[in-house]
Amino acid sequence: MKHFEVAVIGSGPSGASTAFHLAKKGISTVIIEKESLPRYKTCGGGFVYRGRKDLPFDIDTVVEREFHTVDIYLGNTLHFQTVRKEPTITMIMRDSFDHLIVEEAKKHGVTLLENNKLTGLVYEDGKAILTTSETQISADFVVAADGALSPTAKMAGWNEETRKLIPALEYEVEVSDEDFDRLKDLVRFDIDAIPYGYAWSFPKKNHLSIGVASTKKTRINLKKYYQEYVETLGIKTIVKESQHGFQIPIAPRTDGFVKNNVFLIGDAAGFADPITAEGISNAIYSGVLVAEAISESEGQLEKATALYNEKLNEKLVPEIQTGLWLAKWFYEQKTVRNILLKKYGQRFSDAMADIFHGERSYPTDIKQAITRKIKELVF
Ligand SMILES: Cc1cc2nc3c(=O)[nH]c(=O)nc-3n(C[C@H](O)[C@H](O)[C@H](O)COP(=O)(O)OP(=O)(O)OC[C@H]3O[C@@H](n4cnc5c(N)ncnc54)[C@H](O)[C@@H]3O)c2cc1C
Question: Which residues line ligand 1 at a C-beta cut-off of 6 Å?
């Protein structure tokens, strides 16, 4: 049986970037991926600048479009815009983007086992024995980067009951030349285009990625809101469209991020942003953190576990926890929120742009700040 120091399950941005950083430090690493690469991934493909600026290689070859200007709408009445020198959102298609990171990782010696679905995981004598649809290997550490539904986390004993996954529906849409010319230079978010959520229009090279996401798990007819949103965008002719639905985990797991020698990252850990459901940048960032923890531990499991938890608690997890509170308030206290947006909407948009650029995170005193603003407006 072949042995690796680290087995990474999943070749999305979290897994591929973990493998890249581990291999760069000379750690023998295998990626186990169930699909054949490049593979389609349901995603709006909006990659925010805080993720892009920290990538250690160039992604120009897979960039579809770059947006320095971002528009946020609230119904027909409010519209805010931010303009930045660096691209706030870079549009990518996930098949070529994810594949690029894997190829960069391979340059440093990572082994890729594609078409290998992980089907079994046992912990024996300090090692993991991993069974895939094609083979069996062993590893000192396992990094679960297998997305929102993470079969690896289930096999390793994590509890699924406590998770917060939200539904999202995304369409790859080809529209008429006339509609495309009108919409291709505009990236927009429409708050409340769907209950408790938002809709987006993300222009790619030759088509639009249009989607809707709701932060409520209750039954919401996503398709109906998508169709209404297409009307809001004034699209007259749809030449071709394909529908893709999936879930986004917008709350960190509550039963830890390490069990035995299995470490969770990206969507498997629940690291997407609770307000925007943007998950690529935190997926990559958590991949960097786990790679650092494993390499700094020099192979000692206890040390790697402590280091990873320490690194997560420095910034990433507290930031998402604050985001969770803010998202609940933002999407559920509509009336008060809209009053505040009327007065401070541009400030809110600027703050979101700062977050997208990694220039600030959600303020930890957000509860007090919002209460203060409400009091200012009411009294
Ligand atoms: C509709 C929608 C729109 C979104 N839009 C955006 C957006 O515009 N911007 C943004 O930043 N985020 C967006 N997200 C979130 C983003 O897609 C995720 O946060 C991100 O993909 C997480 O990356 P990951 O590497 O953790 O997991 P993934 O990208 O999901 O990768 C997991 C990998 O694991 C593999 N895998 C799964 N099971 C197994 C197994 N048993 N064995 C082997 N391999 C396995 C999968 O094939 C896959 O390649 C969106 C999500 C959805 C659903």
Answer: 9-15, 32-35, 41-46, 117-118, 145-147, 151, 168, 170, 211, 246, 248, 266-268, 272, 277-280, 283
pLDDT of residue 374: 66
Q: What is the pLDDT of residue 373?
A: 66
Helix (H, G, I), strand (E, B) or coil at 268: helix
In this structure, the dihedral spanned by the alpha carbons of residues 12, 222, 50 and 305, taken in order and rounded to 10 degrees, is -50
Contact assessment for residue 168 and residue 245, using Cβ atoms and an 8 Å cutoff: yes
Report which secondary-structure segment, H or E, holds 216: none
For residue 102, how many other CB atoms are within 10 A of its CB? 23
301 Cα: distance to centroid of ligand 1 (angstroms):
27
Q: How much distance in Å is there from the Cα of 143 to the middle of ligand 1? A: 15
Spans of the chain, pLDDT less than 70: 373-379
Q: How far is the CA of 277 from the centre of ligand 1 (A)?
A: 12
What distances in angstroms separate CA 309 from CA 30, 57, 164, one per listed residue? 23, 27, 20
The domains found in the chain, sorted by start residue, are 2-70+84-162+251-318 (3.50.50.60), 165-247 (3.30.9.10), 324-378 (no CATH)
Atom 10, ligand 1: which residue's CA is nearest?
278
In this structure, the residue with its CA closest to atom 18 of ligand 1 is: 279
Q: What pLDDT is recorded for position 378?
A: 59
For ligand 1, the distance from its centroid to the CA atom of residue 133, given in whole angstroms, is: 21
Q: 34, 42, 40, 41: which is closest to 10 by C-alpha?
A: 34
